[in-house]
Amino acid sequence: MSETSRSQAHTHRDAGAAPRGPGGPGTPHPTAGRAGGHQTGGHSGRPRTGGSLAVGELVEAALPLIAGWLPGQRWYAGKGQAITGLHPVTATPLITGDPAMVHLLLRVEHGDQADLYQLLLGLRTEPPSGLLPEASLGALTHGPYDGAALYDAVHDPELTGRLLAHLAGADRFGPLSFRRTPGPGLPADLLGRAGTAEQSNTSVIYGTSFILKLFRRISPGTNPDLELSLALSRAGSTRIPRVAAWFESRLAGAEPATLGLLQRFLPDAEDGWELALDQVARLKGDPSPGNFAVEAHRLGRATAEVHRVLARALPVARLDREQTDRLAGAMAERLDAAAAAVPALRRYRSALHAAFRQLTADHLTGLTVQRIHGDLHLGQAMRTPHGWVLLDFEGEPAKSVAERRLPQPALKDVAAMLRSFDYAAAHLLAGAEPDPELAHLAAAWAARNRTAYCAGYTAAGGTDPAGAPELLRALEIDKAVYEVVYEARHRPGWLPIPLTAIHRLATTA
Ligand SMILES: Nc1ncnc2c1ncn2[C@@H]1O[C@H](COP(=O)(O)OP(=O)(O)O)[C@@H](O)[C@H]1O
Ligand SMILES: O=P(O)(O)O[C@H]1O[C@H](CO)[C@@H](O[C@H]2O[C@H](CO)[C@@H](O)[C@H](O)[C@H]2O)[C@H](O)[C@H]1O
């Protein structure tokens, strides 16, 4: 390759890629922006640092390492299926030299599916000190960075610091646009640290001020987390961390895709799931068990407040008769698909279908639907000194974005949170010797908090869940069915938790 073509930070081939899935028809050959202003250095067995980056050559050299590393990542959704194709869609050098950082959108084909993933590749002659083993992709063996360490750049504070600087500068690089909300400027000089929470995406925290969520599996269009968080932020809601910035990528033939969301970090916040588990653990003989029901009530209020703001800010509709059939039909379809995937669910199918059939058009016609959180659970709620704050409005990761953006009954979020109280109680019993007394206490804990949550929700103006028992039951079943599939895929050891709930919901009316 001539030095001239190298210095053009050229794009990678995608010849022969199957035209399907995100980045399918109309997908451009990978594009690359330019970053940095150094002159290209000569290559002598060391990374050609400095200067424009032969990004296509680099990505080509990285692909085998990416193929080995990707399936081990928590956020990778194609687990269990062989990767049949890796096709870079855009590759944008954000930093050139040593270290370097390349932003990559990669189409991953597995089975008959294709997904688009966001990767940030870090490259250094020497790996950064303290790099976690799971962050390392290995050493490149050819290409312009031959011999350099290739790693997930989210674990490099200096490199992720640059992302914040790009957000602060509202910069543009090739297909990438960094955008800021109006208001005070952003600091451009903070280092990032990768978050440690178990999550579906990857978060980077800047000091005690900001948190940047990098979405991993990317769909064209505005991510619902950005859409809803922005709507709530703009309406002045204090029930979410304020949105400060985001970034997105152009995709050929499709709407720009949201790639990252920067929000205020809540340094004093406590995770609702951890708080609940702590309370539940006290049931084991603590003479002064805490009273979580007060918190559950406040959380119900916070949920209703968020629903009210969303209903004002975004479209609402009333279900007509045809739509009510579709709502109940979709639940039945999800049940069938789940039962096909998880055999343990099959014996409950007819009882659960009967529960969906009880949900007649009379119960649903005229019901208001609106944008909702979509995957509400205790781990998405943070208790701050100023009250509960809700996070992660992305919806259920397994559903398509189009599905997640549909208006839904607000009680769907309520049902999901009710499931979460049940999860926390069941978690105490999981894996232990059967203990009827403890099981009774755990069930009473869940019931108390579920009641308090619904009371808080109603007190703050939400629809009283007790007024729609058939709908609430169907929505809880629908969520528990989702959880069965989720746990079977991601945490098989936890599968008994939603299965026990399914048993209860199938056997009690
Ligand atoms: N603004 C914030 N302040 C403090 N911690 C946060 C904030 N946003 C997220 N977190 C932490 O990061 C975790 C993952 O965030 P979340 O938005 O749920 O990511 P994911 O969609 O990847 O699951 C949360 O459970 C919480 O512990
Ligand atoms: O937080 P995510 O958006 O990644 O949501 C997924 O993972 C959740 C688990 O982390 C999962 O929630 C389920 O487990 C929770 C306990 O870990 C429990 O509180 C929830 O009620 C239960 O649904 C969520 O379903 C999944 O989409």
UniProtKB/TrEMBL annotation:
Q: Which InterPro entries match?
A: Kinase-like_dom_sf (IPR011009), Mak_N_cap (IPR040999)
Pathway assigned in UniProt: Glycan biosynthesis; glycogen biosynthesis
- Return any one Pfam family short name: Mak_N_cap
Q: Which UniProt keywords apply?
A: ATP-binding, Carbohydrate metabolism, Glycogen biosynthesis, Glycogen metabolism, Kinase, Nucleotide-binding, Transferase
The protein in question is named Maltokinase
Q: List this protein's GO terms for biological process.
A: glycogen biosynthetic process
> Boundaries of each Maltokinase N-terminal cap domain copy?
69-156
